[in-house]
Specification:
This protein is an alpha/beta fold. 54% of the residues lie in helices and 9% in strands. The protein has a 5-stranded parallel beta sheet, with helices on both faces. The structure holds adenosine-5'-triphosphate (ATP).
Length: 462
Amino acid sequence: MSTEDIAASLWQACVDQLAQELSEQQFNTWIKPLSAQVADDLSRITIFVANRFKLDWIRAQYAARIADMAGNLSGQPVIIELAITPRETPVRMAPVMPAVSEPDVLREVPGAASAPEEPAGGLKNRLNAQLTFDTLVEGSANRMARAAAMHVAGTPGHLYNPLFIYGGVGLGKTHLMHAVGNKLLADRADAKVLYIHAEQFVSDVVKAYQRKTFDEFKERYHSLDLLLIDDVQFFANKDRTQEEFFNAFEALLAKKSHIVMTSDTYPKGLTDIHERLVSRFDSGLTVAIEPPELEMRVAILINKALVEGAEMPEEVAFFVAKNVRSNVRELEGALRKILAYSRFNQKEISIQLAREALRDLLSIQNRQISVENIQKTVADYYKIKVADMYSKKRPASIARPRQIAMYLAKELTQKSLPEIGELFGGRDHTTVLHAVRKISGERQQLTELNQQLHVLEQTLKG
Ligand SMILES: Nc1ncnc2c1ncn2[C@@H]1O[C@H](COP(=O)(O)OP(=O)(O)OP(=O)(O)O)[C@@H](O)[C@H]1O
């Protein structure tokens, strides 16, 4: 690899790491638009920023973190410089450190992150062209949601309106929404499509309220053919927003425009959202996206590595997929670490390399998820005694949590069925297998059980 390539990958690795650490909105607003120049000896990174406001913000919020990351990756101190990219005049340099926060710059309030960039007419569709059906790997975890989304993209305004997609973090809900928008635009370039995060909708309502521009607001939202709105759980407790969303919702449905929504929970699980809205959310089709199963995780890793121009042997993908189970965003993070580690050390991708690159992540997991921990957490959750996990008692109030704990032990640890059986009071491996099959089958059917398992998984993963 040339010195230039190594320098460029140092910046890319920092960007990748920030993508993992920040919310998507923060990342897209502040980090994605940056460009940078890295000195050949990796001692200095000059980051180019569009204007003074952004420069101050990046300096206060991110410069120190970037310096840390770059230092860790390159193994030497790295100085971060910020410069405004001029339209006509030459680049002006600004000193960077120390990275102290500047209270007068901007406070983190919902929607504030994107406030400076708000387009006047607001007619940008905000779609990310990379997020298409082609790049979304299909598996049993997302099959139904994907099929419904495809249908909507092909014939919007008909079946499944609204389409409500829910699931845990990083499982591809946002991706799927963008895919719907991109497909519709590919078929009908003149379609009016808007992707918006619920927080941004809240801040649009606040702005319309402050500036008395509700007519424009209505004109903008009520004229859409397709509204894609992400993370509607953020509407909780925002009465005015809920009212405006209700109006937009009714107007759009009346003119047969389509609405696709996502949330971290199913409609009835939403809290502090008016009943009339919740019942409308549930009036089309509600589908879940589950955490991807092993084969799907393997396929995602191999595909994403290819997109990055790298080849990930199947056994390595399997090793990573076995160990990184929670969601696709974490899988992507693990992949980035492995690719960066392989580039910096100029080594081929192997299981050994993956183990080294993911050292921190693997040790945290091993520390946190043990069968004992699962038994205790599940017992606490269902309010039974931990001892009941090993006892021979069979009433349903005990047997079911025990089966759930067995299922989670299989899902979240590396233990074999006989080992799990042993840890549950010396039960036979067929008993464990029965529990695993039963719970995983019911999970597909029963929303409430699925929701409980989500909570338990999130709790155990810390
Ligand atoms: N099935 C998949 N195939 C390929 N990439 C995927 C898949 N599912 C998710 N991803 C990728 O994983 C990352 C996280 O997905 P996404 O942002 O859509 O998650 P999300 O469910 O909206 O999460 P959050 O609730 O945190 O916003 C994205 O980069 C997305 O492209």
